[in-house]
User: Fold this.
Amino acid sequence: MAERDKRDVILQVKDLNVSFRTYGGIVRAVRGVTFDLRRGETVAIVGESGSGKSVTIKAIMGILPSNATIESGEILYGGMDLTKLTEEEFHNIRGKRIGLIFQDPLSALNPIMKVGNQIMEALILSQKMSKKAARQRALELMEAVGIPDVERRFNQYPFQFSGGMRQRIVIAIALAGDPEILICDEPTTALDVTVQARILELINKIKEERHLSVIFITHDLGVVATMADRVNVMYAGKIVETGTSEEVFFEPAHPYTWALLSSMPDLETKERLFSIPGTPPNMISPPPGDAFSVRNRYALRIDFEKEPPLFKITDTHYAATWLLHPKAPRVEMPEALKTRIERMRRRAVGNE
Amino acid sequence: MSDSTYLLEVKNLCRHFTSGRGKNKLVVKAVDNVSFGVKPAETFGLVGESGCGKTTLGRTIIRLYDPTSGQVFFNGREISGKMTGELRRYLTENIAMIFQDPIESLNPRMTVEEIIGEGLKVRGVKDKAEIRRRVVEMLKKVGLNEEHATRYPHEFSGGQRQRIGIARALIVQPKMIIADEPVSALDVSIQAQVINLLNDLKEEFGLTILFIAHNLSVVKYFSDRIGVMYYGRLVEVARGEDLYAKPLHPYTRALLSAIPEPNPLTARNKKRLDYDPERDHDYSREKPEMVEIEPEHFVYCSPSEAARYREICRSAVKAGD
Amino acid sequence: MGNVRRSVALIVAVIMMATLLAACGGKTTQQEPELKVFRTYLTSDCPILNGHDSVESSLQVPHDYCSSPLYRVYPNEDGKGYHYIGDLAEGMPIQIDEYNWQIKIRKEAKWHNGEPINADTIIYSWKMLLDPILANQMADFLATGSITIVNAREYQRQGTENTVAWEDVGIKKIDDYTIQITTAYPNTAEEVCAQFVDRSTFPVYQPYYEAGMNESRTQTTYGTTLDEWMGCGPYFFKKWEFGNMHVYEKNPDHWLADLFHYDRVEVYIVPDMNARVQMWESGQLDYFVPDANTIDRYINDPRMVSYESLGVDHIDINCKNPTNPISGLIEYRKAVYHAIDRETVAREIYGHMKPTGTYVNGQAGILSPSGLTYRESEYGKAVTEMVNQWGPYGYNPELALDYMKQAFAKAGLSDNDVITLKWICEGSDVEAKATGEFLMEEFERIFEGRIKLEVISTAGMSATQFKRTGDDKWDLSPNQWTRSLSRKFPYMCFYYYLSTYATAPNNYFDEEFDAQYAVCDAPELKNDYDRMLQETKKLEEIYLEKVIHVPTVQRVVYEMFSDRVKLPVDRYIPGLGWGTIYGDIVK
Amino acid sequence: MLKYTLRRWGAMMLTMFIIMSLSFWIIRLMPQSIFENPEVAPEIQRLLEAEMHLDKPMWVQYYYFLRGIITERDFGRSVKLRPGMEVFKVIVSRIKPSMVLNFFSLILAIPAGIILGTIAALQRNKWPDNLISFLVVIFISVPSFVFGAVLQYLFTFKFPIFPTLYNASASSFREMFRSLTLPIIALALGPAATIARYLRGELIETLNSEFLLLARTKGLTRTQAVVRHAFRNSLVPIANTMIPMITGIMGGSLVIERIFAVPGMGGQLVESIVVGDHFLTVALLIWYSAISLITIFIVDISYGLIDPRIRIGGEK
Amino acid sequence: MIVDRNNLPEDIRDLPESCFEIVGSEDISDEPFKTEAIGFFKDAIYRLRKNKLSVIAFWLITAVIISAIIVPHLTGYSPTAQNLAYRNLPPKIPGLEKLGIADGTRILTNRPKASLSEFPEGSIIQIVREYKASNVDMVDVKVDYYKFVGVPEGEYHWMGTDYLGRDLCTRLFLGARISLLIAFFAVVANIIIGVVYGACAGYYGGRVDMILTHFAEILDGLPYLVVTILFMLLFGSGMFSIVLALTVTGWIGTARLVRAQFYRFKGREYVLAARTLGVRDRALIFRHILPNAIGPVITRAMISIPGAIFSESFLAYIGLGIKPPNPSIGVLLSDGQRVLLQYPYQTVFPAVLISVLMVSFNLFANGLRDALDPTQRGEI
Assistant:
């Protein structure tokens, strides 16, 4: 990695391992996740439900449920290791330095509290603002996230808002502490397409205006393409591929990424979809070797025995698959994906 | 009377929900004067945002709700009239439904065999072995195996459960399937499985499908013709390619423009269109109605809008030339 | 909204603090330590202070302290007997002739509000007591007590008919301070005094009595609260916390003030027995009556005193139960009579009471001129003897079985038939219920399975009321009726079982019995005590022969006084008891 | 909100009316006569009955009964327990100790239950939780009359800290209150335990909710988050337990009152039923129903206050 | 671990060629399950068994039920056999008596010192207190009460005897049997009425629901204890009327719960699915909705069993208990409370038993609720 880049890194997750105690046994939800976030960039984490992406960011925010433990790893931020912080110390980080946007804006807002108060609350309690100033600031925030008629809306309750508006409130709350990092946990999954587009635009706009660094979690590749500078693909608690958006979308190296990219139809898809057979692994006893191997039609024998390391492809592009090993047979990405990428490139050119 | 070209024909169907009484009476027009037809062996996609009434429409057709007004014909027979035992039988023999939520849609207290076999039982199949045989057969068709028959839903993953749901719908060999958001609650990697499966089965059984979804890409991929719904109304109906190539109704355009493209090069620069009925239409003088702008391309518009849309189509054709 | 919440929270906090403080606050120091306070209790409060219409004996307590009767019983100097003293009355009644007595009212007598009490007051009170429309339940006590006032009963019972005028009643005002009473039979002065010690004859305060009267003059609210009641006794009724306590304070201006020594009397209303025991044990009460459950604890205690009461517990027998084929048979009644192990019932279940196979109580006759009770007399003894010949207190299982077999035969029942008898008792009557449970086993054994007893508690109404709901609802029912007049005229115990008594507790009537009662009740026997006992013996014999009902237990009253109370007498005096209200508090 | 309140009020009044009618009919159908005095001449009996309209057909009686209550709070006169006294007066005379007892039991039970429940929820599965859960179960399971008797034995007899009986004539409120402490505690234990149990469950659920997570990601401390967010939200379902709790307290008081000689409504009700003082019984029944209805009403309203969804939803 | 493809660490670089053979196939089917098929109730039981407290509670309940069935036959006493001479004997348990607990001793209070000589030989154990009352020397004396009243050696009453000399242990467990039966019948009646009522209201909704709900609301406005008392008065005491009285308003809660559950479940997609298949109302209610809705109902039933026992004891306390000679826990408790000071054991044993029952039922119900909660399915 280049020197310049290192200086810019504001958050670094190193070999994070998180597990949960459950009735059935220990669920190893996050297994050695490593990534970093640089100033002003948007890093996306893509994966299916249960892949460990939400757990990762909960670990960063220090809001893991009580049955979860961080087994090992570091989360470095501003010279601190967040995994070692006490609850007390975390208060100075949560909200003020790192903001979080939730997946479901309905359950994330207190149903019986006025939205204005919910925004103000953070300002008053953790930033010790006066009530009047906090109100002023809250109104500004509401305006900033595109809520019309703020004076009236200020005194309304969450249930009086539409889904998109609620999400705007959640964003306003996240921004209240003026954080430098914004973590978005599937912020648009529960929303309609048109609303989603608007929220994404809003997040991008805010990011630019406030020079935020964003960690964006989603399972929707379309959203990733819209938002991310860099993409981490997670599967079964591991990052299987990481790279810039262009790299991951146009030169995917991991079979899982291939499958992801080609499994969803776009508006021009006509050919049979490339589907991933089988089901995601049980994280109580993840399979040895590459967790994806059992569903992978390109699985090598070693995939079932040994975990692949992250092979470096370019300075920014890494993938954890034995297919990148020099001795591995050369496997082309599926034909369907090839045509799709081709089409995408053409479109991009066409648009320009 | 119904058009014999359609297997399912919906005519001016309305379904209103009312709450409160007197001055407080509140009417939600979940489905408001909707008309369309589905041809045999065709897949008709219904797309729209949550709350637009597409689910209500599907449920009204299969008579989970009673229509407020309007008619529905199936194979020429009206199925929107008074509910009789005979009609119920007719309906259940011909139309089946697939539901959205793979967790919600299977009774947790019943085994897979019981769930799938229930339709047979209702139809009077009493022989246990026969039920078993057909359940297993169906399970195999949806990619599960015999061993799964004795299991309870909670043991399955989302995709598997959805396949069980499909098996339940298909075991009674209906002519038509109403698939209500069958993939939207599934993980990305599983969605493709289910879509492929549906596609295969459609071929195999020659099914007619009413496919309801909010994801335009999926609908487009899966359907022959697509209807776009907005607040209880069908605003545009067209063949898939036409709709994509020549979206006429401003709402359809907005919807199309909002789809995030999995293409980092174009996604960010994409121009998003907004739809605001107040701004985009002026219905104060002219009343809108469904107008066939092109063959098989209907748009809900006023006469003046229709003229404008025709113009757009013509120019598009020219451009295409 | 926020402010509201905050203030609510504040209030809650304050209340909690107050609770805490109040709870932690130590005992407050005893105020006025020199006062002589007598602390006693009632098991339930007086429903009303109007003595005219309430049969509750609890009324006697506040009346004795806070109101004044014409006469009081007062212990003799030697502490061995008692005599009557005038309270509102000035001296003993003056005999005018054989039937007429004059009572002088004390000139200084006055209500607690200072208004004078005179002959008009008394006559008004009695007129109201006897008022035919008001239909007071206690009217009989004035009309036919130890003396019978001419036409009083007739006046009271006439209803709306207006056949007897008030002027015809033997109560006349002679002057402002003299009342003349005309009796139906010759009496002694003591007998006249005895008539006017009961709470019903205490004066009522006319203004309040009238103010409380309803339009049709069928009811008055006199005495429902302290504000609607007026006292005139040696104590002021200071506080009436209904259901909780009474406080009486000494009235130093009362004409008999010297006879009363307590400065203050506190009457607690304690329905719960455990609470009573705890209060007695911790010295919060000066007086205590143990019950069947607690008697064991005190039975050897020297502070415990006892005397036989007027009450004899007995079992009423339903002779008209249509569902019970033997119910009308005398053999059945005799069988029941002989099947009861009275010793066990009285000693174990009732707790140190006396078994009895006869009905006339141990106190009957005690106020006779000779002081000889019926039971102590040769006649009474003879009956007891007769009973004991059957078995101890009439208990004889073989005889019982024999009679029952006869009854069965008479009713045409085989030996395999089983008859279920319904034992009706009030749920709150612990002893009656326990007796039922006891007899359940006993009858099964004695009658060799022919009889089954079913214990039914009549929660929700009195057993008497329950029995009135139908003859098929009951067979046996424990009961206790007392007539205080039997202290003087023993035969009066049987009063309630005459066919002439409207609401007789059982439904067996016998002409011979009625006739014999009339013989006893003849005026001439009133002055021939020996003959009365003789006739009473006959009456009791008929009673036993016909088994009008089944006597079981002679109740004994057990009482205890704390050491700090000095009583004016050193032994129990019939008719006076312990003279509790004249007692004193010693260190 | 006003409309919502009015509607609830209307519903309550209707229920009240039906309850009044119901109790009238139930009581009148009981196999007991109103008068029980053998000494009274029949015509006087009739006179008395006429005065109370008892000689008329049931429907007419019912009319007089309703008219009496609605127009002049006239519930008739007591015939047995307080002969001649107006039933309304009887009730009024008994309200004070009953209300003090019931009200303070509630006042004690609610915060105590809330505190215990909160501690248990926050210390979930640690020893305070286990201890509280144990106590809660004991308090719920032992009948209050046993508690009453045991408390009385312990704290008035063994360790005489409190007076044995209710002291109605106490010179100060404090003194009177002291004499009510034990019955209040005896009555409050069960409800407090109930609240604690419910609150614990609700709080645990709320503590796992997403908005609490959001609250914490805002930078609120755990305590702030719990107090400001979890608490009020948990109170909504707790309000539901209030209704059975209040009737429970009233039911319990009918026994406790006896043990501590508190001249309250509960004891009066049982007595009146037992001796068949019908007018009093009906009035007390109505009174009790009114209390529970008012509770329901208050709970409904407080729902509205706590939960804007109901309040504002109600305006639409 | 990050590796550079062009500069691999040795262990990775030197992996044998054979490792890199493609073995993945095109046709990957779903994994067969490794575990046994678990039905819902089996699953619930499994989860219930994980909850230790519930298991203990369950065994306690079972123990009480078994004791209620067999203990009255084991004690060697008949529950109704009386022996007035041996009334109110204190508890005496073989074995424990040597430890000084339940040794059949009792303190007789307020005895004149002089009377001690009349006590049966060997019955006096200790003089606890000496004092003077009314100038008489008094003592409180601890006696072996069994000797005092002349109970033959070797006769034991584990919980003592009552006011008629009946063995309390026998009666307590007989009482437990009766109380449990009353509770059981009352709860079953409540559940049946409640389920049918609630199901009707919830399933059909609309006007039916409105009428039914309003009716229940009105009944609910009546204080339940009062209604219960009135019913007892109307029907007299006895098991049937107690059950009836407990049912009058008892079912309302269940009905409300079932109604709410029906509202929740009738819109569930699997119910809709069954409807589209043409399943009839009855089958919908009983096969699809009820089995899923029943969890909280069962839990509620469990919790209301101790509630019913509790109410029964209240009724007994105010004299509306079951007909003698049969005892119930409530009857024993109220009999005991009357003599709490003299014979505390007569209260203690029933109180302990009722508490154990209540605690157990509550804990078991808690466990059941968790176990039956469908959201926790599969969380093993």
Notes: Residues 376-380 of chain E have pLDDT under 50 and may be disordered.
